[in-house]
Amino acid sequence: MATPAQLGLMDAASPVMEEMIYFHDHVMLVLILITCLIFYSMLVLMFSKYIYRFLTDGHVIETVWTVIPAIILVVVALPSLKLLYLTDELDNPQLTIKSVGHQWYWSYEYTDYYDIEFDSYMLPIGDLVGGDARLLEVDNRVVLPVDTSVRVLVTAADVIHAWTVPALGLKMDAVPGRLNQLALQCSRVGTFYGQCSEICGANHSFMPIVIEAVPVDVFESWCDGMLDSD
Amino acid sequence: MSDLRPPSSLCPEKRTSLSPLNFHVFPAPTMADVPAGRLPKPQMRGLLISHLKKHSAIALVFAMGVTLAYKFAVADPRKRNYEEFYKNYDVKREFEAMKEAGVFHSARPSWESSDD
Asked: Any idea which fold A95-228 has?
């Protein structure tokens, strides 16, 4: 999750998020280049006393300052499009889960191999124990196997919500009457937090998402436990 | 009229007394006194363009320098850090450590069940 005074992106927990971080660094290089050029130019021009009285047009300079930004845009756009299509790639998912947004909680369905369904409500402050994150903890977490390609089908039951997990580089609108598909793969074990990202009413800020990435055998044990509890 | 003589090699006569009455004033050195040579001709035209060329080059070098510094100080080390992290990543070891710390709900720590 985010830490206090954090400025950068969260540490990546999926290959796609790693690529997003590298792309962010790539775009930052371009931005730093342009910003330094502009700042230096501004500084020099502020203290310069030279003028050219006979300036009427500048065809060459206008060509230069059109072509160079176009090249810069291409340098940014090509990796961007590559990343965009990478996020849509689904690599033979071994598991499919459904995430349904309600006002104001998420419900999950694991109907591939088992028939597991549960609701996931935010834990109120009074139910938190030491070390829990305020407004982020839920009663029933989404448990997923690590290093496994998972398909998440996102929809909603009432109004538009959005299912988001920043550490995994995931965000998808949950639209009623529509199934949106997400490709998910956790590279490491841990808990990953997210919050609803589409305004959906009074408690929009109080319907978080928590994913637990665990080894496959632990995931299977959890599934057995969920079936037994049903 | 009293003269003030600069104590330099240009002045042929030496001061013989420190009394202020013995100070002599000479006029400032003229062109005839300056050794033979020519001053460089100052730039008369094209000042703006030469100024722009010089500072454009400096701006480019400065911007490229800062960009390369970000690349080698931030971007490349970050890639290496991720590579190093996953090179010897042990899922089981990390999971057990997190489990014992009480991070997971699906797998409770061993000390919790023993307490029960």
From this structure: Immunoglobulin-like (2.60.40)
Count Cα atoms within 13 angstroms, Cβ side, for B50: 5
CATH topology of domain A15-88: Helix Hairpins (1.10.287)
By the 8 A CB rule, do A154 and A163 touch?
Answer: yes
Report the distance separating Cα A213 and Cα B4, nearest Å: 94
Strand-pairing partners, residue A66, are: none
**Bridging pattern class, strands A142-145 and A150-156:** unpaired
Q: Which of A44, A215, A219 sits opposite B55 (nearest CB)?
A: A44
A97–B contact, CB cutoff 8 A? no
- Rounded Cα–Cα distance for residues B48 and A50 (Å): 5
Do A122 and A208 meet the contact criterion of CB atoms below 8 Å apart? yes
DSSP A13: -
Residues in chain A within 8 Å Cβ distance of B105: 141, 212
CA distance A49 to A38: 19
What's the domain range around B68?
A: 47-112
Neighbours of A81 (CB within 10 A): 10
- What does pTM read for this prediction? 0.83
ipTM score assigned to the predicted complex? 0.88
Mutate one of B105, B110, B112 to test the A interface: name it (highest A CB count within 10 A).
B105
pLDDT truncated to tens, each residue of chain A (230 aa)? 888 889 999 999 999 999 999 999 999 999 999 999 999 999 999 999 998 888 899 999 999 999 999 999 999 999 999 999 999 998 899 999 999 999 999 999 999 878 999 999 999 999 998 889 999 999 999 999 999 999 999 999 999 999 999 999 999 999 999 999 999 999 999 999 999 999 999 999 999 999 999 999 999 999 999 988 86
Beta bridge partners of A95: A150
